[in-house]
Design goal:
The complex is a heterodimer of chains A (122) and B (411). Chain A is an alpha+beta fold and 122 residues long. Chain A contains three helices and six strands, in the order βαββββαβα. In chain A, the strands form two sheets. In chain A, strands 2-5-1-6 form a four-stranded antiparallel sheet. Chain A has a two-stranded antiparallel ribbon with strand order 3-4. In chain B, 73% of the residues lie in helices and 0% in strands. Chain B has 21 helices and no strands. Chain B has helices at residues 3-26, 31-52, 58-76, 80-83, 86-95, 104-118, 125-136, 141-147, 152-168, 178-200, 207-226, 233-246, 249-252, 272-285, 293-305, 311-327, 331-345, 347-357, 363-373, 378-391, 395-410. In chain B, α7 packs across α9 and α17 (331-345) packs antiparallel against α18 (347-357). Chain B starts with a helix and ends with a helix. Classes of the chains: A alpha+beta (122), B mainly alpha (411). The A-B interface holds A 28, 31-32, 34-36, 38-41, 43, 46 and B 318-319, 321-323, 325-326, 329, 331, 333-334, 337-338, 341, 353, 356-358.
């Protein structure tokens, strides 16, 4: 089993366009989907949901306003799941409710800690 | 009252009080001596009372004898000056006479401190439960062996090893400082939760004993809720959960000891007082901004005390199980979630989710699939139930499953 990040993107402020009851249903769907992953013992971390108050810091200490409003693929959050292969992780990602409201899911492998910080042998 | 009934009763109520006070006085290295002294006290009571009749205040008699025996031990003990806790040395320097304080306040304090000492992550959970039953609940070794479905020797060995480890690690009998309580109480709550479950889902045939384990777990949790420094939201949440579960005690066990499933229970046997208490503690648990797994489990248990079946109920329960699983995976929660999901979305959806769980070695997994396949594909239902009956260890559970199989074959 390896860890994969499911990274969610959607148009910033897209929630505002959704009717409140649809939004509540979407939340329930989302919880059901994550609950189903967790029930298989495959949720490594629920990760985080990102808010929309943001700034971008660029070289030269230039601080720009948040990367949203006009941006279609604003980063919205992530979960970390366990899967045997990226194909299995993709199958899991296909159930994500964000896909029903115009968003997207990016599946990325996570580099295990020991490879990230190799212990010097000499 | 005859001394034959009185002594076991006093043993259950007083053994733990005196033992906790003596343990605290002697220090963690002398738990066994504290137990022996209190044991001897009861032995002497049995002998003396048989002769001379029961004293006017039997508990006070026990306290006096135990106090004297404790003082004798401290005086006689050659290693007294080196090894006995500094607190006693300090006290004895001043008065040359140790005070054995058996006031109700000191008893409570000592029991709470012992609770923190025993629920020590350095010893295995089953040892923490065993020691709790012995020291905090005053159970006999026979009763503990019965509860764990094992023999006296195993329990004696287990408790001996646990006490040695506490001694080795120099575990202190004291209240953790306020700043550490939140962290330390976690482990105490886990042990109390397991103690309760040991009773509630007991595979022991002794129904009275099983219920006693639950009541003891509730009593100890209540002690934490009563004390200001330990009255935390998750303590109240756990207590609430226990009350809700316990409210079904009388409805879930038939007179012949057989388990009655939730759907078949007589609601009029549910204990409303415990349900009300559960609601009270759930409200208390809501003060603060922590949502622990006990909060979620208590909320699930709350819904189980409401109407047996309503769409709203199962939607709430499903959502709570989703949240519980996101906090912490457990096979039981995964199976229960799937049951709730089937109640909301139908058996076919439930089967699809259940088969993803891949818990082939669990009797409960096959039990669930047997349940879900009933009415959808009865042949598969029988297959799963048969596997479940083979994997089940508890005789009462097996009976329930075999009954279901019979019913399916007949229908």
């Amino acid at each position: 089993m390896k860890d994969f990040a499911l990274v969610f993107r959607n148009e910033a402020g897209s929630e505002a366009k959704i009717a409140p009851e649809t939004f509540a249903a979407l939340q329930a769907e989302w919880q059901k989907w994550v609950g189903g992953i967790a029930a298989q013992g495959k949720l490594t971390s629920p990760g985080s949901r990102l808010g929309l108050d943001g700034r971008s810091i660029k070289p030269g200490n230039i601080v720009a306003n948040g990367p949203y409003a006009e941006v279609k693929d604003t980063l919205r959050g992530f979960h970390v799941v366990k899967a045997d292969s990226i194909e299995e992780a993709i199958e899991i990602a296909k159930g994500c409710p964000i896909l029903t409201v115009g968003g997207s899911v990016e599946v990325r492998d996570i580099i295990p800690v020991e490879t990230r910080y190799p212990i010097p042998q000499s | 009252m005859q001394e034959k009934e009185l002594i076991p009763q006093l043993y259950r109520s007083e053994f733990r009080k005196i033992t906790a006070v003596l343990c605290r006085l002697f220090g963690i290295e002398h738990i066994s001596i504290a137990e022996d002294i209190v044991g001897d006290t009861f032995l002497l009571a049995a002998e003396t009372w048989g002769f001379k009749g029961i004293p006017q205040n039997p508990a006070a008699w026990l306290y006096t004898v135990a106090k004297n025996k404790a003082k004798d031990f401290l005086k006689r003990n050659a290693i007294y000056n080196e090894k006995v806790s500094p607190a006693i040395q300090l006290a004895s320097e001043n008065t040359n006479e140790v005070e054995v304080d058996l006031s109700s306040n000191n008893i409570k304090d000592s029991q709470l401190q012992m609770m923190f000492a025993i629920c020590y992550p350095g010893i295995p959970p089953e040892s923490q439960i065993g020691l709790s039953l012995r020291i905090l609940c005053g159970f006999s070794i026979d009763e503990i062996a019965d509860a764990f479905l094992t023999n006296k020797e195993t329990i004696n060995k287990r408790l001996y090893r646990a006490k040695e480890k506490l001694k080795e690690d120099k575990v202190k009998i004291e209240m953790p400082p306020d700043a550490e309580i939140d962290k330390r109480i976690d482990n105490v709550l886990i042990t109390l939760y397991l103690l309760f479950n040991e009773g509630y889902y007991s595979s022991s045939k002794n129904a009275v004993l099983s219920k006693d384990l639950c009541l003891e777990a509730m009593r100890l949790t209540y002690m934490l809720a009563e004390n200001t420094s330990t009255n935390k939201p998750d303590v109240n949440a756990l207590l609430s959960l226990m009350c809700f579960h316990a409210s079904r005690f009388d409805a879930r066990i038939a007179p012949d000891g057989e388990l009655i499933l939730y759907d078949d229970q007589d609601i009029s046997l549910w204990n409303n007082e415990l349900i009300t208490n559960g609601e009270h503690f759930l409200n208390m648990a809501a003060r603060g901004n922590v949502v622990s797994k006990y909060h979620i489990e208590a909320a699930i248990a709350y819904w189980h005390t409401a109407d047996k079946d309503s769409p709203e109920k199962w939607e709430k329960v499903l959502s709570l199980y989703n949240r519980l699983l996101i906090i912490e995976y457990s096979p039981i929660a995964a199976l229960n979630r799937t049951y709730a999901l089937a109640k909301v979305y139908g058996n076919e959806a439930g089967i699809a989710e259940a088969e993803k769980l891949k818990l082939e070695n669990s009797n409960l997994y096959h039990g669930l699939l047997g349940e879900l396949y009933t009415g959808v594909d009865n042949k598969k239902a029988i297959d799963h139930l048969t596997t479940a009956s083979k994997l089940t260890k508890a005789a009462a559970d097996r009976k329930v499953i075999l009954k279901k199989i019979e019913k399916l074959k007949a229908g």
